[in-house]
Structure formats: C-alpha cells, structure tokens
Amino acid sequence: MPFLETLRVALASMRGNLFRAALTMLGVIIGVAAVIAMLALGRGAQRAVDEQLAALGADVLTVTTGMRWMQGVARDQQTLTVRDAEALARDARHVSAVVPEQTGRQQVRYGARNLNVQVIGTRPNHAEVNGFRLEHGRMFTAADDAARRRVAVLGGEIPEMLGVPAESLIGQSLVIKNIAFEVVGVHRRKGAIGFMNPDSMVYIPLATSQFRLTGQEQVQNISVQVAPGSELTQAMVDIERVLRREHGLLPGRDNDFALLDRRQFLAAQQQTTEILGFLLAGIASVSLVVGGIGIMNIMLVTVTERTREIGIRKALGATRGNILRQFLVESVLLCLLGGIIGMLLGAGAARLLARLAGWQTFVSWESLALAFGFSAGVGLLFGLWPAQRAARLDPIEALRHE
To answer: How many C-beta neighbours within 10 Å does residue 49 have?
Structure first.
C-alpha cells in the first residue's frame, strides 16, 4: 500500500471517531504545551541572568577590603585607599580604567520624605565603567570632584522612592547627612543584580564623600576594567602584584584584600535557573509519557474493533508490513497533530505568563523542535506494540471475529 494511501486511511479512521481522537490527543497536547511553557520560562530566566551579567559588566573586576577575625567575628580590614587605585591605574598593564568607591548608608531627605540608602562616593568614570546611562541631567565631572562640590546623581528608583518625577528633581536640593546636595542627574534603571540594587543608590564625587561625609581616606571597593585584548586571569594577576607591592606584603603572607570576578555574583543564580528549567521540563515531559500511554490504550482498542477489517485486508493481499505501517502512521499522526496544537498552546501560555505575571519568557526554535520530535517519538514508541499486534493477527481468525 502506498504511503499516501496509508495516510488517507489513517485520516479517514480519525474522522470516523473524531471525538475519541481528540480525547486521545489531549494528553499529548497538554504535555507538549507544558514542555514548551516550562522551557520558555527557563530560557527567559537564563536570558534575564545574561542581561544582568551584561549590565553588571563582565569585563569588570572588583577589589574589596579583606576580612580579619576579632573575637570570632569577621570584620573589614579597611586596607584600600585612593592611592591603591592610582597605583593600579599607573602600573597595572592589563587594566584600562580604575574606579575607587567609598560606600555607606546615609540618611537622604527631600522635603518630607526621608530615606536610608547607600551613598556611593566615586569618580566621574563610574557610570561608563559600570554600564550606567543617564536618563536626565548629567554626570558630575572631574572638576566637581576636585572642588568637592555638593552634587549628586540619583539611581533610577530614587525619584519613585521620593514620590517625585525624575525630571523635576534636576537642579533641586537633596539633603544627605544634613548637608545639602544639588541633584545634577538621574540614571536610567538597570535592575537589581542579585542582592545589590544600583538603582536605589545615590552617587556623589569621591572627594566630597571623603571630606564632607565620612572624613576617611579609605575606600571599600575599587572597580577595575580589564583592558581590551587582555584576559581576566592576566588582569587579576596584575592587580594582585601591584596591590601586594603597595601594601608591602612579603612573599608567603595572605592578601589583605579580596579580588572578585563579577560573574561569580550570578554563578549560583545561573546554575539554579538552569537546574530549575530542566526540572520543570522533566516534570512536564511526564505528561507526554502519560499521553503516550493513553494513545497505546486507544490503539489497542482500535485493533480489537477493527480485527475483522484487518482480516479482510490480509485476505486481499495486505502484508504484515502494510498493516504495521497503517497503525503506526495513525499513532504518529495522532501525536503529531497533538504536538502541533500543544506547541501553539504552549507558546500562547508563555506569552500570557509574560504579560500577566511579568515573567520573562523566551520560546526558542530548539524547544519547539524538541517538543515536536518528542511527540513523534512518543507516537512511534507507544504505537509500535498495537501495530505489531495488528500485523500478527491470523487472517482466518480475524475474519471469524465478530
């Protein structure tokens, strides 16, 4: 029997029992839709992590103060200074930019609103190195830093926290630790990165922070941008060499500073996201297996119902291969039609989740191909036994079947 004829017979059989065919496909439809939706959630979460990593700056290393133990409690050693940053900028060969940062929580007041947020004293190149973009106004300049001017640039969420439109804050006075600062700019939002939210911080010139707010020379962090063409490992070795020399550390002594690759901040989150995506897809795949069992059950019933028909076909010259192919095509066709409907429903569910719940989803062609191929595989696997049973029927016994 030609393949097209086999396909026509399979379609005619499905049309003859349309409602039963729809119920049979339901398990596959739900399974494929669930797989597509879960993979879209996993891929969307993965893309969100990648975007966070890009916003964080994959080519930026962070030097932080080391830790020392006092009475069983870890405390910062406060070993970093602006001179360390200047030494890195001058002597480190694999570094293109260095940004010292003095951080601390301060009371910020605007009108009747009072906030307790992180205030970052830094240099004008902080925005460029860390990937910030201005939404309104300007970044403070080197002249502002040198003159210790009381100017501030706000993170993207600060205007909302103050209950004031961002553009109306430009030129207004903001009180930080009882000192008035002029707002000169507002950053565009970047989004939270792990436990850190740069959008809820206030940025001021480093010299202003040192001499007007903290009275300290030490800085808590130094952000270091790796030079183009240099490897992160090369830059890390270079930074360690310069800082150990600046701190007078003899060979064999531990560093009194810590050097972090910013990608480590998101490594655990990225791994958790991948595991969760695979777990959700695995759970959803169980629905496909259940749907396949349902198809096997229905195909066995179909073989029993059409035993006399099989006997007639064999009596007219149909071979075992013809009968086997006929029932396999019918099983695979049920799964493929269910898979197509499931893919459409899954893609729609992913879009609905993104719109209603605000989750980031991404339906890839790979996931669609995987679900489609898996549904075809389910049709072959679970349709094989009923098809073999039909092919092995004795034509004389089949013709006697009532």
So the answer is: 21
Sign of CA dihedral 56, 60, 61, 65: negative
190 φ, ψ (degrees, to nearest 5): -110, -25
CA distance 280 to 75: 41
Q: Tell me how far apart the terminal alpha carbons of the chain are, to the nearest angstrom.
A: 26
Rounded Cα–Cα distance for residues 187 and 170 (Å) = 12
C-alpha–C-alpha distance, residues 148 and 223, integer Å: 21
Most confident of 143-152, 266-275, 375-384: 143-152
Q: What is the pTM of this model?
A: 0.62
Residue 211 identity: F
Could you tell me if 263 and 57 are in contact, meaning their C-beta atoms sit under 8 angstroms apart?
no
pLDDT tens digits, 130-146:
888 899 999 999 999 99
Residue 69 contacts residue 329 (beta carbons within 8 Å)? no
- In tens, the pLDDT along 204-257 reads 999 999 999 988 888 999 999 999 888 888 999 999 999 999 998 888 888 888
Distances from the Cα of 149 to the Cα of 49, 124, 187, 249, 293, angstroms: 37, 13, 19, 36, 74
The answer to whether residues 335 and 292 touch, using CB atoms and an 8 Å cutoff, is yes
The two tokens of residue 42 are: 């996993």
One-letter amino acid for residue 187 of the chain: H
Which tokens hold the place of 10? 């399979």
Q: What DSSP string describes 115-148?
A: EEEEEEEE-TTHHHHTT--EEEE----HHHHHTT
Helix (H) or strand (E) holding 310: helix 307-315
d(CA 301, CA 310): 13
Q: Taking a C-beta distance cutoff of 8 angstroms, is the pair 115, 162 a contact?
A: yes
The pair of structure tokens assigned to 144 is 């502002």
Q: Within the chain, what is the greatest distance between any pair of CA atoms?
A: 105
